[in-house]
Amino acid sequence: MITNTELALKGNQFPNNIVSYNKNIDVLDFRTENDVTLQITIVRDSVIRFRYSTTSNFDKDFSYAITKYARTGYNYLEIEEAAEDYIITTQKLICHINKINLKVNIYDAKDNTLISHDELGFHWEESYEFGGDIVKMSKTSQDGESYYGLGDKPSHLNLKGKRFENWVTDSYAYGKDTDPIYKAIPFYTGLHHGKSYGIFFDNTFRTFFDFAHERKNVTSFWAQGGEMNYYFIYGPKMTDVVANYTDLTGKPHQLPALWTLGYHQCKWSYYPESKVKEVTAKFRELQIPCDAIYLDIDYMEGFRCFTWNKEYFPDPKRMVQELLEDGFKTIVIIDPGIKIDKDYEVFKEGLENDYFCRRADGPYMKGKVWPGECYFPDFTNPKVRDWWAGLFKELIEDIGVKGVWNDMNEPAIMEVPNKTFPDDVRHDYDGNPCSHRKAHNVYGMQMARATYQGLKKFGYPKRPFVITRAAYAGTQRYTSSWTGDNIATWEHLWIANVQAQRMALSGFSFIGSDIGGFAEQPNGELYARWIQLGVFHPFCRTHSSGDHGEQEPWMFGEEITRVVKKFIELRYQLLPYLYTSFWHYLNEGTPILKSLVLYDQEDIQTHYRTDEFIFGDQILVCPIIEANSKGRRLYLPKGNWYNYWNNKFSSGGKEVWVEADLDSMPLFIKEGAIIPKYPIQQYVGEKEINEVVLEVYYKKGKENSFLYDDAHDGYDYTKGRFSLRTFKLTGKTNELIIQQHKAGTFITGYKTFKLKLIGVPFNISKIQIDNEEIDFEAVKVNGDNTLIIDKDFTSLHIMQ
Ligand code: GLC
Fold this sequence. Notes:
The protein is of the alpha+beta class. Helices cover 19% and strands 31% of the residues.
């Protein structure tokens, strides 16, 4: 018998000296004597791609994460050969490639600060079992460096000192620090010496990140296969890092319809029809706003996707229509497992067309999920995605369902130890056939993409609405998401807060948690506190497993119902503000939730804060996450703030105690902000909006605010039919000036603004609108410092 021990003995291998260098416009190839090639692509002045091959050949370049709409192009590029290094200079970065060992150092081109330093740099181990390499990278962790990002990790916001794994996993009732869970977003942001950069390791295999955990001064990342292929994204502002990453992996393809930003009610499961109607009727009876009602797996016939249980739902089309007339959009769950059943149309079609995943040696991938034994569509095959999209015709076009919730798409398999497909399952991977080792992390993303295509096609001209549990980098282009099966505990309220912020820092802003907790049951206090946080998450839905009791807003007694109603109403008032934040996210890639570190990275007090965040640009939110609280301490970032509830003015840059009884929570408005508000509606579109309230928070100095509006659905806005108002506020000791600039051709329904002036330090005696003096009667100045003016003013001048 021949025993080959040579491979095992090889261990880590390293590139050696560079023997050739080749430049082709923006792509530079450096080849070493031992056949390692480093291919560097200058994507932008601040974005450089590093790609390594150990065989001197690269496989076809293909990525599910990178969008074709990503901005490319740089202003400056120079390559110089020095004694020890090749030196690449762009307008933003200087990059040294060592001639002896291929190690890379990256500096800020402005002031030569060392931003990224290869410790061992690129190295690899050959993989005997699967072929190819285990690819590795290690970099020096700089003094005082902090780390953020990485998707949905339920850990401290600052990742320093920890190790993580990215392998999309069904994680029922996960806890703090459980790893991995549902999402794989191999992107992190580093921050040291006041400067921030990002690394996106675009590798879909199982990846690992170690942030100074194993060795104090080393950060490393590696993958069990594929290429060492990462993008270095420079700031130095963290907002720019996240925005550039989001640009690279894609912003949502369209704005969400406004109703999707309303409140959603879900449970496993509402059935039969009479139960659904009972719940929706109660919302209207109690006047608690709600836009969406969900049908979990029990609406189907034996959990067969695209079927209805006719006993529970005898006439789905009629029911969906009736719900809609009452303002409720119906959203249904669709899982990937297709029941093995020779009489089931979807199964038959999948089988006939060979659309299901197969094991390495040919048999179909068989696994147990809710319906029992199932086969699974290979969503990495474009033909399968087309077929899948087509399956939504009846649900969307005929029955009138408005949104689809994709679950179990890790893919989750029951009663097997690894909870998912075995490694050998084959995938098309868009014409790059591979095993599940490579396709696993994108399976759910491609399912959500196919679902999105179906909704887009059959819902047209309405905007599609999809929710997914599993995700890889770039999934934000197609869908919203929630954080999976959490638990009704106070600790999970903390987790939900961190996860939503972290997802936003990872390019994925349309996120929320199961409000109140999925497993077990919250008491009224926990539910109320969770709602208070949830109304500030872009996706706002109560969901629960159902076997632990009821979780509708009115299930916890009158006092709690009142608190919940108050906060859901606040959400509906703030819809124009949230919609405007979405518009910023879509255009600039800036996250909707901003952790304090992203808001003010120069203030080191923010680097380890987890609880406070900025909602949009100007509202500071800090949830109460402990029982029996009368308030809490929080860090008010630098600058001046108004307490939302009592308009009390405070200076930031310090910790403060804030009162917050159960019917309140700490909320602060940045000085100078102009916050737009709609009237309370029971659902989006219930009322014609005739007037928008602008809450104007006086500042001595300048501040810009925005108000975006359009038809709230459809695509006309992409043709210029939107309305974007920029308000420039300038406050002086005895004057307040607001200038308005308008863009877009959409004519809003509202005609007037009702301005509420807050914190104005002088008595108003004179008002000019567009340089004309107005008598107080005409603009209806009220005793309470409000005034109503035409929405199209260009300048408003308020004087002592
Ligand atoms: C999974 C989902 C949960 C859903 C349940 C039944 O546990 O995460 O949200 O209610 O399946 O479909």
